[in-house]
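Email to the structure team, subject: Ras-GAP domain-containing protein model.

Hi all, the expression group asked for a predicted structure before they design truncation constructs. Nothing fancy, just the tokens so they can compare against earlier work. One-line instruction: predict Ras-GAP domain-containing protein, return tokens.
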Amino acid sequence: VLCSACCQEYVVFLFQEYVENIFQAISKSALQCPALMCQLFHDLKELASSHFPDNNEVRYSVISGFIFLRFFAPAILGPKLFDLTTEQIDSQTNRTLTLISKTIQSLGNLGSSRSTQQTCKEEYMADVYRAFYTDTHIRAVRQFLEIISASSNPGHRSLDAPVVLKE
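Reply from the structure team: attached below.
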């Protein structure tokens, strides 16, 4: 039983390390965000802020919901679909990637909320979530979101016509 508890703690430790490494990679990637995406995020942030002037958090939630839910989470869940690996993913690895994806998505949501209410199937995941709900992580998420939604050109005009993104 003692060995099992030690093994469980080590697995949780490794999991937290995976999440932290991915989170750091995401945070450090802000400056590589394509200019068109930055412009779209900027305009989206401005529109949301003007539509909901009493909600200061909306500028973060509108961007984090978009980039974390539509880009990062799917890439983590299906690395083969994004050419991040050529190997077939086994069920255990798939479960780990699912948990990492959920945790990264929750971290993305930190930029717009201080809520630590997270329902977890696994009891140990509540501790994992709490470990990442820190001021340091919140600041990192907000800084990432600010960078990727900054106007690439200070004198730019907002996009008046919709932009159609093609595959």
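The CA atoms of residues 41 and 81 lie 24 Å apart. Residues 2-64+104-148 form one domain. Ping us if the truncation boundaries need rechecking.
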